Amino acid sequence: MSRYRNIQYETAQICEDGHVITIHAKGEPATCRESCPKCGRPTFTACPSCGAFIPGCEHDYYTIKTNCDTDHVVSHFDCCTKSYEIPKYCHGCGEPYPWISGYIDEFNLLLEKIDTISDEQKEILKKSFPDLLSDNVHYASSTLEIAPLLSEVGSIAAGAFQTLLKKAAIDEVLQLLNLSRT
Ligand SMILES: [Zn+2]
Ligand SMILES: [Zn+2]
Ligand SMILES: [Zn+2]
Questions:
Q1: Ligand in closest contact with the CA of 88
Q2: What is the pLDDT of residue 62?
Q3: What is the pLDDT of residues 48-80, one digit of tens each?
Q4: Residues flanking ion ligand 2, Cβ below 5 Å
Q5: Residue that finishes a domain, picked among 78, 109, 138
Q6: What residue spans of 4-132 are helical by DSSP H?
Q7: Residue 168: which domain range?
Q8: What is the pLDDT of residues 151-182, one digit of tens each?
């Protein structure tokens, strides 16, 4: 008896704001929605930049072949064995998905409203912010760039940046900034 395995990804449907509609858009199309029931925003099953599918449930396929008189092949897969992690960047083109680019847009919008820091500083901060959203080599140095922003701007603006970071940044960044997600 031999056993072959391979991993295949289902397609996920996720709304612009990052709510997961379904992780089985292909196999169970009835679970798809045109708009998000939680926030009303449009939903995606593919990257808006390049059209690559959004990876959903990880299906661990295995084929069991028994060498009896007649070859008997059983193909089966394990489903939903891992908790689903929402992807941040497209595996096809590397662009941030809408639920991540939304945070980047929001950050840039907040920056524009602040007049206590120079345009030069704003440009540095704009470059640093995306590094705080995913596990990458630059997140620590980028956190140091952002940290003064939370103390130098007025308290309302600092609160707005903190709220955004708590929603978007990875755990390691929040630890460095002494922020907790709740
Ligand atoms: Zn939503
Ligand atoms: Zn599945
Ligand atoms: Zn893409």
A1: 3
A2: 80
A3: 999 999 999 999 888 777 666 555 666 788 888
A4: 57, 79-80
A5: 78
A6: 98-112, 119-128
A7: 98-176
A8: 777 788 888 999 999 999 999 999 999 988 87
